[in-house]
């Protein structure tokens, strides 16, 4: 039997762990020796998470956390501090896909997207930051390549992810001055169910798109093919989360695949926007 180390395992809290990258990241962090608090909005949806943990032979501390409910966030973080006495990292992974375009959706729908994908990240990060300062911890947020490149019929989703990236890029030097590392993780297409993620009936969406129906149909055909054939696994994407957790000096921006690096690179070297729009115009032609 190996002797116990004097230092207790570091503690990470991960949001949105019922499926996909969040689930894979929780299992990977636990396998790497972190005490992993895997949170989700609806604990009744934890079956897949529990099964994955069992198959990996790891223990997860599964708790409820709704990123749009400040009382839920406070309760979860207070519980972690009460039980473990520390919080060394937070992974903001919870989010929701959305499909729509300006004329065909209400501003209220856009606000709802922002509430989950942007303000939810801020709610959790704000509550965690004092404890991350105390531990010299890490604040990690799963964004998207859609946080760098605007994509047709994803205006609201990309706006939220752009906002997260801008916020975290601005926060990073301030947090670093107090010992907290800030990183964003940029996945491309991940092999989770696209239709389920956006939460709409795609045939009905095209039928109701009016003048934009041909463009939406073209976009969906292209995107579903990408998710079906060119997507990486959630486990592969979670490797970048683990890198941000464990690297001595993690990068601010980590893409999860070579495809994502090439895609994001198009924008980061595109001073006048012509390369990006030349590409995305073709998605709706």
UniProtKB/TrEMBL annotation:
<comment type="similarity">
    <text>Belongs to the short-chain dehydrogenases/reductases (SDR) family.</text>
</comment>
<dbReference type="InterPro" id="IPR036291">
    <property type="entry name" value="NAD(P)-bd_dom_sf"/>
</dbReference>
<feature type="domain" description="Ketoreductase">
    <location>
        <begin position="10"/>
        <end position="188"/>
    </location>
</feature>
<dbReference type="InterPro" id="IPR057326">
    <property type="entry name" value="KR_dom"/>
</dbReference>
<protein>
    <submittedName>
        <fullName>SDR family oxidoreductase</fullName>
    </submittedName>
</protein>
<dbReference type="InterPro" id="IPR002347">
    <property type="entry name" value="SDR_fam"/>
</dbReference>
<dbReference type="GO" id="GO:0005829">
    <property type="term" value="C:cytosol"/>
</dbReference>
<dbReference type="InterPro" id="IPR020904">
    <property type="entry name" value="Sc_DH/Rdtase_CS"/>
</dbReference>
<keyword id="KW-0560">Oxidoreductase</keyword>
<dbReference type="Pfam" id="PF00106">
    <property type="entry name" value="adh_short"/>
</dbReference>
<dbReference type="GO" id="GO:0016491">
    <property type="term" value="F:oxidoreductase activity"/>
</dbReference>
């Amino acid at each position: 039997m190996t002797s116990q180390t004097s230092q207790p395992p570091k503690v990470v809290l991960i949001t949105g762990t019922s499926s996909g990258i969040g689930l894979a990241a929780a299992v990977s962090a636990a396998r790497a020796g972190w005490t992993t608090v895997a949170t989700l909005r609806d604990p009744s949806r934890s079956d897949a998470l529990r099964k994955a943990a069992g198959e990996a032979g790891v223990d997860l501390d599964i708790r409820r956390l709704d990123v749009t409910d400040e009382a839920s966030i406070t309760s979860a973080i207070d519980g972690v501090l009460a039980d473990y006495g520390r919080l060394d990292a937070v992974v903001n992974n919870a989010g929701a896909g959305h499909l729509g375009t300006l004329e065909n959706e209400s501003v209220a729908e856009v606000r709802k997207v922002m509430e989950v994908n942007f303000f939810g990240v801020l709610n959790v990060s704000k509550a965690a930051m004092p404890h991350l300062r105390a531990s010299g911890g890490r604040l990690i947020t799963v964004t998207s390549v859609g946080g760098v490149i605007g994509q047709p019929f994803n205006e609201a989703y990309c706006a939220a992810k752009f906002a997260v990236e801008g916020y975290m890029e601005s926060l990073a030097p301030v947090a670093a001055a107090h010992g907290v590392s800030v990183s964003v993780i940029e996945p491309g297409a991940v092999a989770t169910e696209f239709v389920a993620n956006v939460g709409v009936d795609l045939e009905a969406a095209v039928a109701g798109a009016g003048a934009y129906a041909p463009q939406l149909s073209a976009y969906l055909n292209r995107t579903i093919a990408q998710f079906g054939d060119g997507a990486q696994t959630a486990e592969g994407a979670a490797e970048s989360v683990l890198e941000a957790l464990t690297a001595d000096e993690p990068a601010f921006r980590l893409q999860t695949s070579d495809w994502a690096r090439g895609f994001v690179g198009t924008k980061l070297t595109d001073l006048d926007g012509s390369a990006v729009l030349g590409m995305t115009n073709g998605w709706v032609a």
